[in-house]
Each structure stands twice: as structure tokens, then as C-alpha cells.
TrEMBL record, chain A:
Subunit of the tubulin polyglutamylase complex (TPGC). The complex mediates cilia and flagella polyglutamylation which is essential for their biogenesis and motility. Part of the neuronal tubulin polyglutamylase complex which contains TPGS1, TPGS2, TTLL1, LRRC49 and NICN1. Interacts with PCM1; TTLL1, TPGS1, TPGS2 and LRRC49. Signal peptide: none annotated. Residues 350-378 are annotated as: Disordered. This is Leucine-rich repeat-containing protein 49. The keyword Cell inner membrane does not apply. SUPFAM superfamilies: L domain-like (SSF52058). GO terms for cellular component: centriolar satellite; microtubule. It comes from Pan troglodytes (Chimpanzee). It comes from the Eukaryota. Pfam families: LRR_4, LRR_9.
TrEMBL record, chain B:
Residues 316-329 have a biased composition (Acidic residues). This is Centriolar satellite-associated tubulin polyglutamylase complex regulator 1. The keyword Phosphoprotein applies. Residues 286-329 are annotated as: Disordered. The gene is CSTPP1. The keyword Transcription does not apply. Keywords: Cytoplasm, Cytoskeleton, Microtubule, Phosphoprotein. It comes from Pan troglodytes. Belongs to the CSTPP1 family. One of its GO terms (cellular component) is microtubule. Regulator of the tubulin polyglutamylase complex (TPGC) that controls cytoskeletal organization, nuclear shape, and cilium disassembly by balancing microtubule and actin assembly. Regulates the assembly and stability of the TPGC and thereby modulates polyglutamylation of the microtubule, which antagonizes MAP4 binding. It comes from the Eukaryota. Interacts with PCM1. Interacts with TTLL1, TPGS1, TPGS2 and LRRC49; the interactions link CSTPP1 to the complex TPGC. Binds to alpha-tubulin.
């Protein structure tokens, strides 16, 4: 870090003295060519150049008049070193009063214990003041030093930059090794060329405007997290940010806008550990010639631009992805919310029907499906960019259809319509898993035929929050072509709480030979148990139903399929069942349970409604028939009663008629002629 | 004399109406094979008790014969569940009921469960036999029980029991949270008084009632009883069960040889498959070991016995499996 490498511009304050006796090797070199790190090296240099003997012949006489010692030099020395005075390592705790030296230009107080800058206001020709390594807590007492060009206050205890208003000619300001937390009160230093704020407590860099001559800014060993205003420094060439807390290029983005910067260091920052560090910096700062004290080659630049482009692509891609993900999450939340409200509403209606009195149901059905702010508690940390993009979504869908490789996921009942879409054969053929969430099972039942056609390879069905409440509902799944796996999530599906549900599924859907239910493998024992539990139900459902019932339940479409079952009614069902079970096991649906159907509640009620009319008609029809029958019966009974009497009368009448043969013959002939 | 005649006449009419209704609904299909055959089959199934399968609840409860048939069908279909020893919740039993009758009301199942659980902790598990017998009483005598509930209420609150009691709506049983405070320290009502009211009720009631003599028998041992205690006693009484004629005695509840044979036949391919190595997923030791009585076939050990068994049955019962009631007591 402290490398002695050549830097193009720098400042090394060195003042060449004329030849001097050895004891006075005080050298301040002012050199504009060679360079170094002003702060430290200066001090370094100065120490090097100093002889072991410190200071000039100085007499410090304590005066009784004031608390400050008074400095006195021999007139000889005054003439020899009229413009410089060194009070280095004099164990000074205060600045002594310096009389009669008003044309002093260089003053050195290094390595003392001075706490306050005082008693130098009279030295108005001072151009260099060195207070390195003291105990100064506040910058003060400099207001008269209008010619000051170099101010060295390194390694003190200064907490704040202040009271530099009049030092408009300041060229070098060294404040390294202090306790400064903020850059301030330097905006008027338009001639300042070197500013050293290394080893302070700065957490950020700004407020640098006005430093129109600044070429070197040393900010090493601080706690800087972001940098601003550097683009306001028209001459800045060297910027040292080593050993700070910069972790992203965004926090130093103003550097990209500085056309003068050619040398920068970031080593010792978190950013330097990143994989994208070098090429990001190079890509953003095309004007740079040196990074971390190493010259930048053309090759590096080219690599940088390539890599930067790749980064850009990746970033865009992931941005898009997170946008989509966020949208998906919000949509699912919305669907879930609507589902909950719907369930609550149903529950409310149910409880209201229970109680005969009707309270006004607390009806939270003001569903506002279009607000982003509906989920404040659920928004995780979002990029500001992401947020902005989402603001553009004015309406969130009430359903979601997702295809993820081999899985088709449907959220919300609106999603069922998507089955009508034109799915490409390839996409549809790849789908092996279909997942339903937040959709009523009764609604799903109605689209199962479509599912069968459009997604012929769907083998795994998943249901979550679909209101599966009855074992009967599983009957509806029998119409599919094939199911290998079934997953019924306990959440929102009360049927899972039943002890027997798995066995019923295995029984009813035995023709699918399912492999897994809810992730657990189906064993042969399970199948046997299922048959054992419900086999008789199947038997009863098939062989004991009269023919016409079978027909009406199975419906037209499946009549052909089960023709042989219908035909076999006359034969021994035992044999047929055996044949069925053995040969048809894996192919067609098990015939003896085909009559176990499921009609959704709505359909069922509709049907019952329809039947009501018929029932009424039948009732009246039968009643009429009965009436007729009873009437006929009554008539019959009446006839039975009257008949003997009638018969006797008939016979008597006939006998009376035929008593007189002759007159009877005449009567008959008469009747015949009358007829004609 | 006229009354009973009218009763049976009414029921015959019910079946006639229903038959015609069914005919109307399935006009096209039935016309294919003849109306005469349809009527034959229909009334055959009424006799056999299979006419109520998968029918709507209003039909299932229309006549006592329907109710008996339904109870019997439920028993036959789900006896295996009971045999397996599973204890189920009220909701699950209701589910099973719905498999046979899709719109069976939950209320009735709840009431039946209340009898078993003595109106306590409705989420408790119940055994098959407990539930079935309680359900029988509740379903077959629903209207009667409603009236009894009303009577009980009145007795509890001290009203004159001999006033005419009109059967209340089904919510009567809801009101039946016994206000024990009113009856003082003793729970329920006095048995003999209660029986007198019941006797009156039975005389007047147009719906079916349990035979009064048997009811008296059920009440003979107790001084006082609660409503659910009474119902529990009814459900456990063998005589009443036999009088109903739907279900066998409790001891024989799990026995149905004909159906067991049938079940063996159905299980045959499964057991055979279990024999073939490699064809099976994994024949693990079933953790839910069913507590089967020794009559049932061995599981995986000896596959040949069931086959042999079923062939024998085939030879013997010629078409008898079409008759369903041959095992009826």
C-alpha cells in the first residue's frame, strides 16, 4: 500500500536551504516533479531530513507575565534562518509567544504536545505551518495567516474542519490521522491542490464543490460508504479510497462523470472482492489510466467491456425474472384472498340457514381485486426499480395459469378457462402434472373431459384448497384416462381427515393402478385392503341394480362400454366378475364400480328440481288411475249386487214373452218387417 | 281395519308413482326392452330391497320398507368397514351414507351420533355397530322420536303429560338441552310416567312406532331416564332390532357368508398378483392390521384356498347370488 511507485503528479513540499552546518539539516523540499503521498511521506521526509539535534538554538524563557513561554533566538540565528523556525520535539504543551520574528515563513511544531494553536497571529507572512503529531483538538488561531500555503495538521485530535475561512491561498491541507467525521468548510479553498483526509472517521464524501484546483484527494483508511461531488472537481487526478467500506459501484457513481480522474485506488474495500469489480470499474471509468496503482492495459479494457455487457444482460434477465415472480406472488395472494372470502361467505350462508333468525351476515364481499396496496404486510424487500415497474400493473388478475416444464398450475377458478386455449402439441404433450389450487372441486369436475383431451399425458394430479369434502367426489376422477399419482393437500381439503379416504380412492380408481398417493407408494396390501373394505359396495352397485337403473346411471355414452355387463345380467355374475377382474384389470374401468358416480351438488339439485314436475304429474296420473280403478271396482261391485236380480228379471221377461207361442211368432215377424 | 289397509294401499301407490316416474325419466332406454319387463324388474327390486340404491333421500325415507331396505343395504355394503375395526367420526359415516344416497341430510347423521355419544363431544370416534344401531333407531323412527322429544321436554318442564301433544318439527330435538336445574337434583324424567305418555303416543301416531311391549321392556329396569338414555336403550334392545327386521343381531353383525364369498372372489386377482414376484410394488407388512375373525381368508400365505372355495360356491349356489336376502335371519 505504501508503495513508492511513480505517480505523475503529486506534491512534495520540500524547501531547499542553502548549505548549512550539519546541525541544521532542516530541509523542506518544494518539488513539483517527483511525487509521493503528501501526508505521510512529508512527515517521512521531514523526519529523514532532520538531524538528531532537534530544532535550532532556542531558548524558551518562561515569563512571569503570562503563562506562555516566550521564545528567544540569538540574533545570529535570526539572521541565518530568518524565515524558518523549528520547534520540533521541544516537549511544548502550548505554543510559545514568538516575538520579533514577524517575517517568519516556515514554522515547525512537529512532535510536541500542543493542544491549541495560539500566539502565532503575528506571523502574518507564514506560508508553511507544520503541527504534525500534536494534541490539537480544534483548528483555530489561523485567521491572520492569509499567506499560508501549507498547513500540516496530521496526527492530532481534530474533530471538525473549521476556521479556515481566511486561508484562501492554501495549497496543501493535511488532516490525516484525526477524528474528522465530515467534510465541511473547505469550499472556499479554490487553490487547494492536495487534500489529505486519510485515517479519519469519514463515512461519506460530499460537499467538495469549490475546490477547483484539487488534483489529489487522499481518503484512505476511513469508513466511507459512498462518494459524491467528485464530478465537481475539475482538476482531480488522483483519488485514493483504499481501505474504506465501499461495496458497490453505484455508491461511487459520480466518479464515472469525472473526466479528469486518471488514478484511483479501491483496494481494501468490499467492492474489490467482487467478481465484477475490475471490469465494472473499467467499463464505467473509461478515462482511467491506473487502478490500484497498476496501469491499465488495452487487453484489460477490452475484457472489461465484454464482461460488462454480459453483466448487463444477466441483470436485465434477472430483473425480468423477479418482476414476473413478484407478479405471480401477488396474483396468487389475490386468488387466495378471494378464495377465503368466498369460503367465509359460504360459511356465513350456512350458519344463517341453521339459525332461523337472519342476522345481517357480516359480509366481507367487497372484493377489490385491483389494488397493489392490498398486501402491505406481505411485500418483501423490493428493488426500487421493481416497485416502479409494478406500479404500472393497474389490475392484478384473479387467476393464474403457469406452465413450468412438466407442470401445469392453475390458481383460481378463472384459470379453468385456460384449458380451452390453443396449446401447442409440444407443450401440452410435456405436461405430466396438473395442479389445482383455490378452485372448487365441483368446478374442476366439469372440465375433466377437456383435461383428458388436451393434456393426454397428465399423470399426476394435485389438489390444494379445492374443497374436497366427500368420498363421493373421487368418483368423478374415474373418467380420466389415467392417473399415476394423486396428491391431495390437507390444506383446504377436509376429506383427508377421514380414515378411509385413501382406500376409497384406491378402490374406486383401481383401474388406474396408481403408484403414489400423497407421496407414499401404494403397496399391494393397500390395494387388497381397499378391495376388502369396499369390494362389496362395488358388487352391490353393479349386480344388484336392476337393468334400467344401470342404464340410467351409466348413461348413453358408456352403455357400449358396459354392454357385456348389461348382457350378463342373466348369467351368473360370479363368473363374469372374475373375467372382468382378471382380464380388464389394467385396461378398462372396473365395471362393477362404474355406477359409483359423482354429480356435483348443483347438478344434482337441478335434476331433482326437474324431477319434481314429473313427480307431480305421476302422482296425479296414478291418482286418476286409482280413481278409475276404484270406480270400475265400485261399478263392478254394484253390478255384482244387482246382477242376480237383473238376471231373474231377464229370465222372467223372456219366459213371459214366449208363453204364447203364436203371438210371439207374430211379434217377431212384425219386428222383422219393421226393421226393413 | 280400514286404517292398516289404507296404509299399505298408500305405500303401494307410492311405488306405483315412483315406477311411473322412473319410466318417464328413462323413456328412451326402457322403451328398448319393454315396459312390462321394466315393471317386473322394478317391483322385483322393491321386494329385494335394492330399489333405494343411489336414489334421492325423499324416496329413501318415503316408506318404512324403503327405510328398512336402506338400512340393510348400508349394513351389507359397509359391514367390511366395521369388520376392519376402524372407528370413524360422524362426518365419515355421513360420507359413507352419501355414497349410497347422495343427498342424505347431515342432520339425521348428527342426531344418530348424538345418541351414541350421549350428546357429548360430537367429534368422537364411534364403532360401526354402535353407530349402525343408533342410526337405525333414528332413521326408521324419526318422526316418532321427534314426538318423544317433545314429550320429554314437556315432562321435564313439568307440564301435564296427558294433554294432546302435536309432533313438533324436527327442531324439537334441538331444544332438547335438558334444563337440569328445573328437574331438580334428579336427572331426566320418571320412567313409568314417560312410558304412559309413549303408550298414548303410539296409539295415536300415524307413523311407525316401536312395539309398545318392547318399549316397556326397555324401560323396565330404570326409575328415571334421560332422553338420550332412552334412545340408547332402544338402540341396544335386541327385540326392537328384530322387530324391525333390517339388521341382524349385534353378535352377528359382522357375519354375512354370502357376501364374504363374493368378496373372496373379488379379491382373488389381487391375491394372485401378490404372489407373482416382481409384479408387486412392495408387499410390506401392513401396519393397519385388520382384526379379522378367523373366517376370512389368509392374506398372502395360501392363494389356492380361495380359488377352491369359490368354485365350490359356484357349483352350489346356482344364481343364488342374485338373491340378496338369503342370509337374512
Amino acid at each position: 500500500m505504501d508503495c513508492q511507485a511513480e505517480v505523475n503528479c503529486g506534491l512534495h513540499l520540500v524547501i531547499q536551504t542553502s548549505s548549512l552546518p550539519e546541525k541544521n539539516k532542516v530541509e523542506f523540499k518544494l518539488n513539483k516533479d517527483t511525487s509521493s503521498f503528501p501526508g505521510r511521506l512529508l512527515q517521512h521526509d521531514l523526519e529523514r531530513n532532520y538531524s538528531s539535534r532537534q530544532g535550532d538554538h532556542i531558548n524558551l524563557v518562561s515569563s512571569s507575565l503570562s503563562s506562555f513561554p516566550i521564545l528567544q533566538r540569538s540574533s545570529e540565528e535570526k539572521i541565518l534562518y530568518s524565515d524558518r523556525l523549528s520547534l520540533e520535539r521541544q516537549k511544548l504543551t502550548v505554543c510559545p509567544i514568538i516575538n520579533g520574528e514577524d517575517h517568519l515563513r516556515l514554522l515547525n511544531f512537529q512532535h510536541n504536545f500542543i493542544t491549541r494553536i495560539q500566539n502565532i497571529s503575528n506571523l502574518q507572512k507564514l506560508i508553511s505551518l507544520d503541527l504534525y503529531d500534536n494534541q490539537i483538538e480544534e483548528i483555530s488561531g489561523l485567521s491572520t495567516l492569509r499567506c499560508l500555503r501549507v498547513l500540516l495538521l496530521g496526527k492530532n485530535r481534530i474533530k471538525k474542519i473549521s476556521n479556515l475561512e481566511n486561508l484562501k491561498s492554501l495549497d496543501v491541507l493535511d488532516l490525516h490521522g484525526n477524528q474528522i467525521t465530515k467534510i465541511e468548510n473547505i469550499n472556499h479553498l479554490c487553490e487547494l491542490r492536495v487534500l489529505n483526509l486519510a485515517r479519519n472517521f469519514l463515512s461519506h464524501v460530499d460537499n467538495l464543490n469549490g475546490l477547483d484546483s484539487l488534483t489529489e484527494l487522499n481518503l484512505r483508511h476511513n469508513q466511507i460508504t459512498f462518494v459524491r461531488d467528485v464530478d465537481n472537481l475539475p482538476c482531480l487526478q488522483h483519488l485514493f479510497l483504499s481501505f474504506n467500506n465501499i461495496s458497490s459501484f453505484d455508491s461511487v457513481s459520480c466518479l464515472a462523470d469525472s473526466s479528469s480522474l486518471s488514478d484511483i485506488t479501491f483496494d481494501g474495500n468490499p467492492i474489490a472482492q467482487e467478481s465484477w469489480y475490475k471490469h465494472t470499474v473499467l467499463q464505467n471509468m473509461m478515462q482511467l489510466r491506473q487502478l490500484d496503482m497498476k496501469r491499465i492495459t488495452e487487453e484489460e479494457r477490452r475484457m472489461a467491456s465484454v464482461l460488462a455487457k454480459k453483466e448487463e444482460e444477466k441483470k436485465r434477465e434477472s430483473h425480468k425474472q423477479s418482476l414476473l415472480k413478484e407478479k405471480r406472488r401477488l396474483t396468487i395472494n389475490n386468488v387466495a384472498r378471494q378464495w377465503d372470502l368466498q369460503q367465509q361467505r359460504v360459511a356465513n350462508i350456512a350458519t344463517n340457514e341453521d339459525r332461523k333468525d337472519s342476522d345481517s351476515p357480516q359480509d366481507p364481499c367487497q372484493i377489490d381485486g385491483s389494488t397493489l396496496s392490498a398486501f402491505p404486510e406481505e411485500t418483501g424487500p423490493l428493488d426500487s426499480g421493481l416497485n416502479n415497474a409494478l406500479q404500472g400493473l393497474s389490475v392484478i388478475d384473479t387467476y393464474l395459469v403457469e406452465v413450468d416444464g412438466d407442470t401445469l398450475s392453475l390458481y383460481g377458478s378463472g384459470a379453468l378457462e385456460s384449458l380451452d386455449r390453443n396449446w401447442s402439441v409440444q407443450t401440452a404433450g410435456m405436461i405430466t402434472t396438473v395442479s389445482f389450487t383455490f378452485i372448487e372441486f365441483d368446478e374442476i369436475v366439469q372440465v375433466l373431459p377437456k383435461l383428458k383431451i388436451k393434456f393426454p399425458n397428465s399423470l399426476h394430479l394435485k389438489f390444494k384448497e379445492t374443497n374436497l369434502v366427500m368420498l363421493q367426489q373421487f368418483n368423478a376422477l374415474a373418467q380420466l384416462r389415467r392417473i399415476d399419482q394423486l396428491t391431495i393437500d390437507p390444506q383446504g381439503n377436509p376429506v383427508v381427515n377421514f380414515t378411509l379416504w385413501k382406500y376409497y380412492v384406491l378402490f374406486r380408481l383401481s383401474h388406474f393402478s396408481m403408484q403414489k398417493i400423497n407421496g407414499t407408494e401404494v403397496t399391494q396390501n393397500d390395494m387388497i385392503m381397499a378391495e376388502r373394505l369396499f369390494g362389496i359396495l362395488a358388487h352391490v352397485a353393479s349386480s344388484e341394480l336392476p337393468q334400467y337403473r344401470l342404464i340410467s346411471i351409466l348413461g348413453d355414452a358408456r352403455k357400449k362400454q358396459f354392454q357385456y355387463l348389461l348382457e350378463s345380467k342373466g348369467k351368473k355374475p360370479g363368473i363374469i366378475n372374475e373375467e372382468n377382474n382378471d382380464s380388464k384389470r389394467l385396461v378398462g374401468e372396473n365395471t362393477n364400480r362404474a355406477t359409483l358416480n359423482y354429480t356435483t351438488r348443483d347438478f344434482y339439485n337441478e335434476k331433482l328440481e326437474e324431477i319434481k314436475e314429473k313427480k307431480k304429474f305421476c302422482k296425479t296420473y296414478i291418482e286418476d288411475l286409482v280413481k278409475e280403478a276404484t270406480e270400475i271396482n265400485m261399478k263392478n261391485e254394484a253390478l255384482q249386487k244387482l246382477w242376480p236380480q237383473m238376471f231373474i228379471e231377464l229370465v222372467r221377461d223372456a219366459v213371459i214373452e214366449i208363453r204364447n207361442k203364436n203371438s210371439y211368432m207374430k211379434l217377431c215377424l212384425q219386428q222383422i218387417t219393421d226393421q226393413k | 281395519m280400514a286404517k292398516p289397509k289404507r296404509k299399505t294401499q298408500r305405500h303401494v301407490l307410492t311405488y306405483m308413482e315412483d315406477a311411473v316416474c322412473q319410466l318417464l325419466e328413462n323413456r328412451e332406454d326402457i322403451s328398448q326392452y319393454g315396459i312390462a319387463r321394466f315393471f317386473t324388474e322394478y317391483f322385483n327390486s322393491v321386494c329385494q330391497g335394492t330399489h333405494i340404491l343411489f336414489r334421492e333421500f325423499s324416496f329413501v325415507q318415503a316408506t318404512p320398507h324403503n327405510r328398512v331396505s336402506f338400512l340393510r343395504a348400508f349394513w351389507r355394503c359397509f359391514r367390511t368397514v366395521g369388520k376392519n375395526g376402524d372407528l370413524l367420526t360422524m362426518k365419515e359415516y355421513h360420507c359413507l351414507l352419501q355414497l349410497l344416497c347422495p343427498d342424505f341430510p347431515l342432520e339425521l347423521t348428527q342426531k344418530a351420533a348424538r345418541i351414541v355419544l350421549m350428546d357429548d363431544a360430537m367429534d368422537c370416534l364411534m364403532s360401526f355397530s354402535d353407530f349402525l344401531f343408533a342410526f337405525q333407531i333414528q332413521f326408521y323412527y324419526s318422526e316418532f322420536l321427534d314426538s318423544v322429544a317433545a314429550i320429554y321436554e314437556d315432562l321435564l318442564s313439568g307440564k301435564n303429560p296427558n294433554t294432546v301433544i302435536v309432533p313438533t318439527s324436527s327442531s324439537g330435538q334441538h331444544r332438547q338441552r335438558p334444563a337440569l336445574g328445573e328437574a331438580g337434583m334428579l336427572e331426566g324424567v320418571e320412567a313409568s310416567l314417560f312410558y304412559q305418555c309413549l303408550e298414548n303416543l303410539c296409539d295415536r301416531h300415524k307413523y311407525s312406532c316401536p312395539p309398545p311391549a318392547l318399549v316397556k321392556e326397555a324401560l323396565s329396569n330404570v326409575q328415571r331416564l334421560t332422553f338420550y338414555g332412552f334412545l340408547m336403550a332402544l338402540s341396544k334392545h335386541h327385540g326392537i332390532n328384530q322387530a324391525l327386521g333390517a339388521l341382524p343381531d349385534k353378535g352377528d353383525l359382522m357375519h354375512d357368508p354370502a357376501m364374504d364369498e363374493e368378496l373372496e372372489r373379488l379379491l382373488l386377482p389381487f391375491l394372485r398378483l401378490a404372489q407373482v414376484p416382481g409384479l408387486v410394488n412392495s408387499v410390506t407388512a401392513s401396519p393397519e392390521a385388520s382384526c379379522l375373525p378367523s373366517r376370512t381368508p389368509p392374506r398372502v400365505g395360501s392363494p389356492w384356498r380361495p380359488l377352491h372355495h369359490s368354485r365350490k360356491v359356484d357349483g352350489e349356489s346356482d344364481g343364488s347370488t342374485e338373491e340378496t336376502d338369503e342370509s337374512e335371519t
